[in-house]
Amino acid sequence: MEKPIKFIFVTGGVLSGLGKGICAASIGNILKARGYKIFMQKLDQYLNYDAGTLNPGEHGEVFVTEDGAETDLDLGHYERFVDINLSQDSSIMTGRIYSDIIARERRGDYLGKTVQVIPHLTNVVKEFILKGAEKANADVAIVEVGGTVGDHEGFHFLEAIREMRYDIGIDNVMYCHTVFLPYLGVTKEVKTRPAQFSIRDLQGIGITPDAVFCRSDQAIPKGGLEKIARAANLPVTSIVPLQTASTVYEVPLTLENYGLGAIIEQRLHLTPQQPDLLEWRDLVGKIKSDKRKVNIGIVAKYTTMEDTYICVFEALKAAGWHHNVDINIKWIDAEELSSPTANVTELMSGCAGYVVPGGFGIRGIEGKIKAAQYAREHEIPYLGLCLGLQVAVIEFARNVLGWGKAHSTEFDEKSLQPVIHIMEYQKTIVNKGGTMRLGAYPTRLKKGTRLHEAYREDEISERHRHRFEFNNKYRKDFEKAGMILAGISPSNELVEAIELKDHPWFVAVQYHPEFKSRPNRPHPLFRDFVGAVIKSSSLLDVDGVTSVRLETLV
Ligand code: GLN
Fold first, then answer.
1. pTM for the structure as a whole
2. Catalytic residues, which ones?
């Protein structure tokens, strides 16, 4: 008989943003380390169809999968922690479920019946969960339920996962509930009451948790864990304290050290395995060790929330760990830089390298163009990601080719030199949701370029999310003036990557390499960018103050 797929559902209580995604990803990590084939999935309450139209300044980065799904940023955590490539099966928003059910109703699938949340909507949810896990051929599927228990919007998900235990058996379903324990400064106490209420809420829906993760900024005393154990009808060993860690990558090790791996194996009747966490322990050791620092500027319009560019941050950090340095991020506000009276030198100062990440809309665009110019003229390493390529091309056209009116038609429809434009076949696209070039596409790399040196491959594949492209009619002009078109699509139709001759390291790509970077395997472009930064700059001492020339250190 075929082995049944085991399901672990991760819910959250008390408040949002407590790191439920990291907990789910960490479970995936320690189970993968035992040799299990893992499927990860996020259920999101929003009525959006996908994350494509969500504002990254509010909701965080839109993560793009190989097959071009625009998803919640938690999928990025899953890919980084579990080292797997996910697909659209892993990100289910309520809008998609409704869309599916309405299509079924219109087709007449319900044969005159009223269509209801239970059982129709919940059945579709269960179908999405089961199909995703089956398609991935998983041993264990870890499903994170977005939002917080008690939200009106999340009821259909909770009801569906409750029914799953009934449908596929108690031995095949485990529930992990993540709660937050606030610290009360006045009495110097970690409080458990909200967590206990949240467990009660969950029990009220008919879900009894099998383990509770207790997030807290302070150490949780044993008495606190015991109170939660009592509320949850669980042995205290199943209540896992998770005090805020210095690095999220430590969470799998904390869970493993606490014995969660064994608890899961026991609960789901899996044969106990020894996890191979050697490489991960190494990584965490490296992350936590004292290192010299290097400042990298990110020129962007959303500068208040790290989550907006989380994959770019993680890719930079991973590249830093590879070179045994820590990356200090300096935000450079593109809008401030845009002002005609901006003091560019002052705003750009203090960085040994610059990244211009992806973006949409005109706000801050002139600032990003100035940043590309600054990096080019001052011979400071530059990494352009998607929009970061487009601004580098516009800058080059304006200041090297002398085409003062050069622009992207995204920002100036009537530009006389539309060096970035929308291609003919894309012009018919009007909706904003899911209408871009999305997902993995191949690129051929020119030999002898920085790009080829980084990848050490002739053809690569990377994830895309954009509408506008390099205007092919200007290829020759750019090349003559010293821009190398280092990556072209195999059909020769699209410019995918550019770099500059006579510059220490200036590379920009039309795609998003950050999505494929892993903490222990940094993306080659980020790795070489940080390598170039280290080579051409001063490093900061651990205290972040003293500046030391690299040559004196090696
Ligand atoms: N706005 C640009 C485009 O649509 C760049 C998109 C991006 O940076 N992801 O082509």
1. 0.92
2. 386, 512, 514
